[in-house]
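Thread: DUF115 domain-containing protein, structure

OP (GT): Posting the sequence first so everyone is looking at the same thing. Length is 261 residues per the record. Can we get the structure tokens written out before standup tomorrow? I want them in the notebook alongside the other entries.
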Amino acid sequence: MTGETFGYLSYKLVARWLNLDELRDILARNLAWAAVKKCISKATVFSNLDELKGSLKARSVIVVGPGPSAEKALRELCAALCSKSVLVVADSAYSTVKRLGLRPDVVVTDLDGISIQDLLRVANESFLAIHVHGDNIDTFLSLICTMLRTSRGVLLTTQLESKPPLKNIGGFTDGDRAVILGSYLADDAVHIVGMDFTLPLTKAWHSDPLVGRIKRQVALRILESFLCEQAGRLKLYNYSYTPLPCTIKGSASCSKSPQIC
């Protein structure tokens, strides 16, 4: 994904909807770029997605979102697939994975949905895909050198034009960005859980209900286009409460209600 794009919606369009500060986002990307150059790092800072893909060698990927359907779906999936699949977890969904005693292979985060304590813990055993923008740059700058000293490897992403090693991989929220990343990593199948865009809002999406609704609409629109592009290359299974186009429904029970899932 190149240029100032979220994959299928322009940055400028989404910035207008959400009143994003483009200059602050540009400053954040540039400050992050400079900070990474100064850190003493034992971790691999991936310059492209192929390097991360080569480190994982994934035929099957499970992507976990923050929705309430995730825990039930993961219990079903892990009976057969977790031991032989790469687990890509979107930010606050880490709490579900942790509760089930699972270890993520990749955590996709913009540093606002997973506690710093959990982030430092998971960095020792998982790859991190850290997204940088104007609202999290202070947190990023305070943590990045520690992350690079302790993590297995780090992929840095931006919502603006790529500035290596920061890369625009597409996506807007941690959830849809995790699906995009997981689809790139997989050679055969992607199993999507917890992407419950049509359920009532929780703080996992945003503390401001209006902003949260717009973010979910943007994420869903991005995925609607992206998944249909991938359907010819991958088997796409959706275990989420929200239907996603061009995917196969992965669990009959999750089509009923979020309470059952």
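GT: Both are above now. Quick notes for whoever picks this up: The chain is about 40% helix and 20% strand. Residues 252-261 have pLDDT under 50 and may be disordered.
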